[in-house]
Structure formats: structure tokens, C-alpha cells
Amino acid sequence: MTEKQKPPRVMIVDDTPQNIQVLGTTLRRENYQIYVAQNGLQALGMMNEILPDLILLDVMMPELDGFETCKRLKAEERTRHIPVIFLTAKAETNDIVHGFELGAVDYVTKPFNATELLIRVRTQLELKSSRDEIERISNERKALVHILCHDLANPMSTMISILNMQDFFATFDEMRELLLSAVENGLNVIQLVREMQALDEHRLNLESLNLLSMVTESERLLQARFQDKQVALHINIPNDIQVQVERTSFVNSVINNLLTNALKFSYPNTEVNLTAEVTNAHKVILRIQDFGIGMSEKLVSGLFDVHKTTSRRGTEGEQGTGFGMPLVQKFVEAYGGEIEVTSSSEKEHPKQHGTVISLHLLRSE
Ligand SMILES: Nc1ncnc2c1ncn2[C@@H]1O[C@H](COP(=O)(O)OP(=O)(O)OP(=O)(O)O)[C@@H](O)[C@H]1O
Ligand SMILES: [Mg+2]
Question: Could you tell me the pTM of the whole model?
């Protein structure tokens, strides 16, 4: 989201200071972020630090000319997708053709006409932004397919093993129970993917809602499981805090998953604390704290990545999919909030371990 709001980055590569000045002044009027390199080598060196959205590349430069620079840009995976517009002298048709052959998307002739330059630059930036958006959507789709394939395979294999072991069960009811729980697992995965898709396709219907009442609703759904495992759930949230969220996802996905995780990775006879703090007129932090097994730094760093395996069994063997947290993050970000994780693992800190998940939410009237 923030990526989109940043001004497009345009790099000018030219060895003539006067050209740089003319181009820079014209482009700055459009609020582009301008970077300047005085030759091809310098431009390539700068690619480690900044990846521009567009490069304006002079053909004639000492050391490394524009053609060679373009060739090298197109040879690198990291830079090959950056559109290049060549800056050429008017008469050089050969240059223009050669530039296109090397992968340039357009050219501008010197002396520059400001209107023409701006139109060409804007067109290429718009095309790049559409391509980036298509790629983003395609990556999201890949992630969904990944979840579906990976996680539907588990319950299906379980069902096959159960069916193959039918002689092992004394009664049909015993077998039925295991089959049902496998089917339920599969349906949960499908539900998760549906929610992710809904999130991608529509904007959520955000409302101003009472934090305590939603947390209490979620608590009711999980009360029995907390009691079963002898984990005490303490809620300490003022009853006058309103936050900007979407109700169903907040209660059923966000709070539910965070409480389920806190419970799953806690030991019996410990506690889970839910607190809220108003930090200023517009922000609220909701904290879910447990004293369970905690997470290593490596695990935390992959926690929101659907391609990383983070799922572990709970302290009493409870199973999960590992997709809860990526979904929680997506929802929280869709509310305009942020999620923060602080954890110390039992392995590294045997005396004091546990996890605090902080949700930074927008406060409303
Ligand atoms: N409070 C926590 N304490 C310790 N580890 C945690 C905690 N929350 C998450 N984790 C670790 O992160 C992993 C991923 O959590 P996530 O909620 O994404 O998936 P899951 O709980 O394994 O599966 P699901 O949410 O689908 O039931 C967990 O399996 C666990 O290893
Ligand atoms: Mg979970």
C-alpha cells in the first residue's frame, strides 16, 4: 500500500550537466523522485541501492556508453524489468533502432521538448505500474494455489490412511470421528483461501466498533478450550474504546487466531493476557501476551510468509496449517493497522519466555 503512494523514481543518466539540469527541472514539476548518474558505470553501481521505475539513458557517454549500459541492465534479473528510454540526437535513426533492439521501450530526441518528454515518461511509468500490479495479483494467486495444494493434501492423505486401516477400528463410530476431523481440516483450509480471496477482491466494510465487545465475543467461542487446557484468560480492556475494523474477520479470524495460538503454545497453569492501550487520539494498541514456548528470531521473520513453514504442534500436540498469521496480517493491514511480534523462545530463555503480539489499530469515535 505504501509502495503505491511513493512518487515514481526516475533516473537520468547523462554526462552533460546541462541536459541533466533541463531534464531534472522538467521532471521535478511532476513530483517524480529524480536520481542522477553521470555515466553508465555510475548508474549500474547505483542499482544496488535504488531500483528506479524508469531510466532516461543518454547514448553517447564516455567509458560505458548507453547501449552497453542498457545491455547490462537487461542481463541482470534485478534490473531487466526497468523500462529504459534513450536520449538521442535527432538525426540518429540507427541509434534509435539499435536502442529498441537492446530492449529500450522508447526514445526522446535532443533538444528536449518538455511536453513530449513528460508524456513519454508518464506513459512508460503507467505501463510499468500496471505490469507491477499484474505481477502482484499473480503472486497472490500463486500463494492461494500453494495453500490449497499444500494443505488439502494433508487431510486427503489422512482420510486415505484411515480408510485403508478400517480393520484397525473396533467400531464404525471410531473411524467416523477421525474421518470427520480430517474433513473438517480440509474445509478449514478452503475457508481460509476463500477469506483471502474476499480480501483481495473487495474492500472490507470498515466500521467503528467496540473493542471489548468483539474481544468478548471471540473469547466466548474459545472459553471451553481455555478451560480444558487450564490456561487462564485475563481481559483488561476499557469498555469505551472504539476501533476501525471489519467485524466478522476481526472476531473470527484475527482475535480467534491470536488467542488460539496463545493457547496452543502455552503450558497448562499459565495465563494469557489481553490488554489495550490508547496511545493517542487516533491509535489503539491491543496486546495479546502469553508465557508459552515462544518463537526464535528466524521463526518470527517467516511468520507472515505463506511460503515459509512455521507451523509447529502445540504443547499438547495441537495441529495447525501455518496460514493463520499471514491472514491475520492481511486483515490488520486492510483495516489500516499494523502487527508487531515480540517473542523469546523457551530454548534460548528457559526462565522467561513467551510472546506478545501487538495490533496497532485505528481508533474511532
Ligand atoms: N503465540 C505463539 N507462541 C509460540 N509460537 C507461535 C505463536 N503464534 C504463532 N507461533 C508459531 O507460528 C506458527 C504459525 O502460526 P499460524 O497461526 O500462522 O499457524 P498455525 O497456528 O500453525 O496454524 P493455524 O493458525 O492454521 O491453526 C505456529 O505454528 C507457531 O510455530
Ligand atoms: Mg494459528
Answer: 0.65
- Which candidate, 260, 249, 248, places its Cα nearest to that of 319? 260
CA distance to 11, 294, 300, 347, per residue, from 147 (Å): 39, 25, 19, 29
Is there a domain that residue 336 lies in? yes
CA angle 78, 83, 87 (to 5 degrees): 125
CA 261 to ligand 1 centroid distance, Å: 5
CA of 134 to the centre of ligand 1 (A): 30
Q: Name which residue sits closest to atom 17 of ligand 1, judged by CA.
A: 324
Å from CA of 295 to ligand 1 middle: 9
Domain for residue 233, yes or no? yes
Q: What is the pLDDT of residues 48-102, one digit of tens each?
A: 999 999 999 999 898 899 999 999 999 999 999 999 999 988 667 888 889 999 9
103 and 13 in a single domain? The answer is: yes
* Atom from ligand 1 closest to the CA of residue 262: 1
Which atom of ligand 1 is closest in space to residue 326's alpha carbon? Answer: 18
Residue type, 65: D
Shared domain for 213 and 356, answered yes or no, is yes
* Mutational test site, ligand 1, from 267, 325, 353, 359, max ligand atoms within 8 Å of CB: 325
Residues 183 and 250 in one domain: no
* Beta partners for residue 287, in sequence order: 275, 358
Q: Does 214 share its domain with 177?
A: no
3-state secondary structure of 261: helix
